[in-house]
Amino acid sequence: MKGLKIVEHPVLKHHMSVIRDKSTSKQQFKYSLDIISHILALEVFEDATLKKISVETPFETIKGSALKERIVLLPILRAGLGLLEGFIYFVPDASIGHVGVYRDEKTLKPVPYYFRFPKFVKGEDMIVVILDPMIATGGSSIYVINKLIEMGIKKIRLASVIAAPEGVKMIMESIKPVHLKKIEMFTCCLDDCLNDRGFILPGLGDAGDRLYGT
Fold it and tell me: Using the 8-state DSSP alphabet, how is residue 82 labeled?
């Protein structure tokens, strides 16, 4: 699907099967999700811009590289917290915000209740990574993307584990074309469809429930 990058890796596929399995324990689910988050993070940061720096080795000064853009991680509560491990591992000094959005089970519409973003200077060179493991209807992601666009953020990455075609399509149709070029979407698997309750099929159930055992 145009506008969506599907991450491919043998180890990733192995752990995707683990988290899909309904008999997988909470501990194993978290472990496999951590592995998935590491592989996903590398893909998301693949095109990050570098700047030249000087590095003092034990013997001489050389030219090195460092990430040029500030990285901001924005997990959507609560399941999005399950993807933080891999992203923080590679960018430990990343800033972290939090977004609270839940889905009304009757209307399937997003209901925002919390938004906390790190302090920043408008026009600052940054990449904001939205962590949303399940893109089902796409409502939560659309809400956060529009919020970031209003704030003037120019580079937005949406990282997910599983996405439904309906949700990806809704995101692409809901965001104005002039802003779509600011957004890159990544997922580990594009599943078949949504059921009549808005759950992804074949999916893995509720990621938050399985991650936290509630």
Answer: G
Dmax (CA) of the chain: 66
> Which DSSP letter does residue 51 get?
E
The residue length of the chain stands at 214
C-beta separation of 72 from 117 below 8 A: yes
Whole-model pTM: value is 0.92
pLDDT digits 0-9 by tens, 41-81 = 999 999 999 999 999 999 999 999 999 999 999 999 989 99
Cα separation values, 133 from 34, 139, 165, 168, 188, Å: 12, 13, 14, 13, 10
d(CA 166, CA 150): 24
DSSP state of 59: S
Structural domain harbouring 60: 4-212
**Measured between alpha carbons, how far is 30 from 211 in angstroms, rounded to an integer?**
6
Is residue 38 a contact partner of residue 85, using CB atoms and an 8 Å limit? Answer: yes
Question: Whose CA is closest to 202, among 214, 194, 212?
Answer: 194
